[in-house]
Design a protein that fits this description.
The structure holds 3 protein chains of 3 kinds. Chain A is an all-alpha fold. In chain A, 70% of the residues lie in helices and 0% in strands. The longest helix of chain A is centred in the middle third of the chain and has 35 residues. By secondary structure, chain B is α/β, with parallel strands linked by helices. Chain B has a 6-stranded mixed beta sheet with strand order 5-6-7-3-8-9, with helices on both faces. In chain B, strands 2-1-4 form a 3-stranded antiparallel beta sheet, covered by helices on one side. Chain B is globular, with a radius of gyration of 18 Å. Classes of the chains: A mainly alpha, B alpha/beta, C mainly alpha. Chains in contact: A-B, A-C, B-C.
Chain lengths: 260, 246, 224
């Protein structure tokens, strides 16, 4: 437990982690509220209630696959900061040395870090996602939906979104630990969370793409994934969970075997 | 480089005039003034955090002084054309990017200051890194990194050497070697300024001493003068610095 | 002065070449771009032109990384001190770094664009796309000079190019004036025609110049 507390302190004293959290907390509700006010204005003018793929129902929700960049950056920073060189000292000074001398049990260290990440991105998602839904419905005003309606449509999808953020941050964390540098994971994960992701491109090329972690995981919350023949929410979540567990196991194996 | 003074003796090559530097509210360097003369090894002594590195960083144009100036050969470092051919410097670490090879590091340095490429091989030989010059710097030991930093300092055959804690990370053989090297360098009429927190080592290498504590110069003079009536430089140093901090 | 500046440019080129991450970035970007163009082309959903535009949008990640590395590889350790000891003129140093970046980025961008177009089955070499890739890296260069960290600069630029800009574009037409969206008009037809390709190029270049100016001003007066 002490190790977990120490890891919490380490992560929350990293400026880039705080920026990632702040960005997520500000950007997702902000952008969604802006979209909601545009939809409301359009409805007031007698227009259709759907703008692109965004409707009054999912306006608080459509940013979930993009705002996951926040938790992803948390995962990358948590692992990557251990391997960044200190500012003054070129020829050593990576934090991993201090971490491993403080906590020589590497499995414990990995578990502590992963727990911190689960709690942090879990809380982040559990706060930001419902808050965004509430905010957009408030902005929509009379065009909004009742809580029963929302619960009926979104309900379990909110839990799916939280799970998606947590698993995504763990994936980024595991890949960064193995790579020992945040650069490639940062490019890969952020680009892949863009409007048109690599994996989405792959769903058009091969049916096997539905087993990719992010494509499978997206089924946990996405009401209208723009491709055919995808997995259901529960199998999709399980596939993503399996990927995450597998990659964490690889990271654990690599971390316990290699020299710091 | 050496500026002959009117009486025929060479004048000071490095001058600090009323140098002051703040880090936030803390005064890191407080009105520091002293000169360094050619043909001598000058030791810049002080405990950790006394302001040695800050002073040297300002001298090398890396940091900005809040007041005062630091001059090399009468000019600020930043105004020297091809500075590596005038001043060789070594700060902490190797100063090289860890995924570059030592040879590539020295090659770009030489290129940037119009130094013949042949010097790269020469300085690698001098510091004893010729066999490992193609390896990435990240695979080097601390001592090898320091040797590479020294090679970079010597690259331009400078008249002035400014070294921050040069013996840090060197083994006894390396320390002995650098001591002889610096003495010989100064004996050729060149200027050597080295900072250290190691009393005994500095007493053996330096001719002149400048002692700094908490950002202020507490004493300066030849080694004999600074040691004065004390049993050793170390005794003298503690007498000077502790008396002040009380 | 000019011969001095050229020597510094040559030194910066040696630095970039001898940094293993740089050839790796160039090679990986070209290979991944061609590979994606192949996969997306095989899917046959989009026209060859659309496929080429899409993969060039991905390829900008490589140019962002190149721009960031040119500057930020100096930080997070000792190299910046060595560099400034060798070349104390900070404006000249930045000019030389930018020149070295451009000398590598222009052929790199041309090869990337040609690869994307050929594999996607589109003929011709869009000069606009090449210019865009070089400029987006220059923007990353400026951001890296301001924030002085590889991961931080990379995070900012990638989030801008791959999340913030595309999302804002769906919300407001003013988003067309964001640097990357304005510049993209040089090779990609924009939905609401707020900017012509020429105007887009000017807007993006203006962003790059302003950010570079700010970054150089900051760099010229801060401690290394």
């Amino acid at each position: 437990m002490r190790v977990v507390a120490a890891e919490f302190r380490k992560l929350l004293t990293l400026p880039s982690a705080l920026v990632a959290i702040g960005f997520t907390v500000a950007a997702m509700p902000g952008l969604a509220a802006q979209t909601a006010s545009q939809i409301a204005a359009r409805l007031d003018a007698g227009g259709p209630e759907v703008v692109g793929t965004v409707s009054t129902l999912n306006v608080g929700f459509y940013l979930v696959p993009f705002a996951v960049i926040g938790p992803i950056v948390l995962g990358i920073v948590l692992a990557g900061s251990e391997y960044t060189r200190g500012n003054r000292d070129t020829d050593g000074g990576r934090q991993i040395t201090a971490s491993l001398t403080a906590v020589p049990a590497r499995g414990t260290l990995l578990m502590a870090k992963a727990s911190v990440l689960v709690v942090l991105s879990g809380v982040l998602a559990a706060v930001v996602v419902p808050a965004t839904i509430w905010l957009t419905q408030t902005v929509l005003g009379e065009h909004g939906h009742t809580w029963d309606e929302l619960a009926g449509t979104l309900g379990w999808r909110v839990a799916g979104a939280v799970a998606y953020w947590v698993l995504m941050s763990l994936l980024a964390f595991a890949v960064t630990l193995v790579a020992r540098s945040g650069i490639v994971p940062m490019i890969f994960f952020v680009v892949n969370s863009s409007m048109v992701s690599f994996s989405f491109l792959l769903t058009r090329a091969t049916p096997l793409a539905k087993y990719l972690p992010d494509v499978a995981g997206t089924q946990m919350f996405s009401p209208d994934y723009p491709a055919e023949g995808m997995l259901g929410p529960v199998p999709g979540g399980l596939v993503m969970l399996a990927w995450t567990a597998g990659l964490l196991a690889v990271a654990a194996l690599v971390l316990t075997r290699r020299d710091a | 480089m050496r500026r002959p003074a009117r009486d025929g003796h060479p004048g000071p090559v490095i001058e600090f005039i009323g140098l002051t530097k703040r880090h936030g509210r803390k005064l890191a360097v407080d009105d520091v003034s002293f000169t360094v003369c050619p043909g001598r090894v000058t030791g810049f002594l002080g405990p950790n955090g006394a302001g040695k590195s800050s002073t040297l960083r300002i001298l090398l144009g890396l940091d900005f002084a809040d007041a005062g100036t630091a001059l090399v050969g009468g000019r600020p470092y930043r105004e020297i054309r091809n500075p590596l051919r005038t001043v060789g410097s070594l700060l902490d670490g190797s100063g090289a990017h860890r995924s570059r090879s030592a040879r590539a590091h020295l090659t770009w340095l030489a290129c940037s200051n119009g130094i013949p490429r042949s010097r790269v091989g020469e300085v690698l030989d001098v510091v004893g890194l010729a066999d490992v010059a193609g390896r990435r710097v990240s695979t080097y030991s601390l001592g090898m990194g320091r040797r590479l930093g020294l090679a970079a300092a010597l690259l331009g055959e400078p008249e002035v050497l400014v070294l921050d804690e040069p013996v840090n990370g060197l083994d006894p053989v390396g320390i002995r070697w650098i001591r002889g090297f610096l003495r010989a360098y100064a004996a050729e009429g060149r200027t050597v300024l080295l900072s250290s927190h190691l009393m005994g080592e500095t007493a053996e290498t330096a001719d002149d001493l400048v002692v700094i504590n908490a950002g202020r110069i507490v004493t300066r003079g030849s080694v004999q003068e600074v040691v004065g009536g004390h049993a050793s430089l170390e005794e003298s140093f503690f007498a000077l610095t502790e008396g002040l901090s009380r | 002065m000019t011969s001095h500046l050229w020597r510094v440019v040559a030194a910066e080129l040696i630095k970039l070449r001898s940094l293993p991450a740089v050839p790796a970035t160039v090679g990986t970007t070209v290979a991944v771009t061609a590979g994606l163009a192949f996969v997306a082309g095989r899917a046959g959903v989009d026209s060859p032109a659309d496929v080429a535009f899409q993969v060039i949008t991905y390829a900008q990640a490589g140019f962002i990384l190149l721009g960031v590395l040119t500057v930020a590889a100096e930080y997070g350790g000792g190299p910046i001190r060595t560099t400034l000891a060798a070349v104390p003129g900070r404006v000249a140093l930045t000019v030389a770094k930018l020149a070295a970046y451009v000398l590598i980025a222009v052929p790199f961008a041309a090869v990337t664009v040609v690869a994307a177009c050929r594999v996607a089955g589109r003929t011709g070499v869009p000069v606009g796309a090449t210019a865009y890739l070089v400029l987006v890296g220059a923007l990353a260069f400026a951001v890296a000079l301001l924030v002085r960290g590889v991961l931080t600069a990379l995070g900012i630029m990638l989030t801008l190019a791959f999340a913030v800009s595309p999302l804002l574009a769906t919300l407001t037409e003013y988003a067309a004036y964001l640097p990357d969206l304005a510049g993209a008009r040089m090779f990609r037809p924009g939905p609401p025609d707020v900017l012509t390709p020429g105007q887009g190029a000017v807007v993006m270049a203006a962003w790059v110049v302003c950010l570079l100016g700010t970054a150089v001003a900051a760099f010229a007066q801060r401690d290394a």
